[in-house]
Fold this protein.
Amino acid sequence: FLTRRSSDLAAADGWAATFIRGASLDKDEPYEITLRPGCSIAGRVIDSEGNPIGGVSLSSKNKDFIVGYMSEFILKATTDEKGEFMLENAAEGAYEIQAQMHQPHEALYANPVSVTVEGNAPVAGVKILAEQGAVLKGKYQEHEACYDQCCLFA
């Protein structure tokens, strides 16, 4: 067994997930992976009048990671009745937070918010503003004029 190169993911509750590319693994020697304490990103989701919005699903991923699509690198949280949230176990880097509204607030939307985690410092006071949008409801129908495209008629 010769030394070989490997890409490895290490994740544990309470720690920031780590991805190591091109690690040299040797059959006879243990390989050490050091996990860093995860940081928190905390904030609040409010509407245009400053009212808190509870039950909002938030997700965020480190924009610097090429493997950000993997579930170990996606931070998730839900707002409480005060509209407050805490995304936990963030590694250092730039994050984009996205909010998904649910009933009875499904007509609201929020633009993604960018934050940066530096070192082991938590990020606090993130404000996500939910604005009035619209919900289209209807029945899917095909129509000759659509030319192989989908049409939605309310």
